Amino acid sequence: MSESIKSLELLAEQFGKLGGVGKRTAMRLAFSVVDMTEAEAERFAEAILEAKRNIHCCPVCQNLTDLEVCPICSDLSRDRTTVCVVADTKSLIAIEKVREYNGVYHVLHGMLSPMQNITPDDIKLRELIERVASEDIKEVIIATNPTTEGEATAMYISRLLKPAGIKVTRIANGIPVGGELEFADAHTLACAFDGRKEY
Ligand SMILES: [Zn+2]
Prior knowledge:
The protein is about 45% helix and about 15% strand. The chain is α/β, with parallel strands linked by helices. The chain has two domains: about 1-55, Helicase, Ruva Protein, domain 3; about 60-199, Dna Topoisomerase Vi A Subunit, Chain: A, domain 2 (3-Layer(aba) Sandwich). The chain has a five-stranded mixed sheet with strand order 4-3-5-6-7. Strands 1-2 form a two-stranded antiparallel sheet. Helix 1 packs across helix 2 and helix 5 (about 90-100) packs across helix 8 (about 185-195). The longest helix has 17 residues, at about 40-55. The chain starts with 5 loop residues before the first helix and ends with a strand. The site of zinc ion has 8 residues, from helix 4.
């Protein structure tokens, strides 16, 4: 039946573009929208547009925010001499949940991957280098995932920053190899930070 309802197909196609949403889920979500009142559907569509219009990268750390500068960078109680480098905002949120880290962050928005043709120019690396050059940063903790891309990215950053006299550390391997930081439990993440090793 659904094959003949063009608008439903188009809507499901849009849901299917979201991460982790398969064809069946996409169709189920499309049906949920059809079941909404018109006012609900308008709020839903508006929320998507609002998020898209308001959310941008923090000019300091590249974290996603809808404020001019993100709340972490605006928080004067945080230690600005320690910068934790993460691949994405999801990793940052995972680390923040543990409530043990009191430094600031730098979000790369990706990891280096020769296989997928992702080069240093495709992620926020230039911003990190500029930051290290202009701010008083003593330690850079690299907290990318323990995957091939995460390790390659960590290695690249350490080679870039070490000659500048910055202490570069890598979080310890508590997180399962190939695993993702955002799914690690609080204890594992806290241990990974405590056990970080210098390059
Ligand atoms: Zn920020």
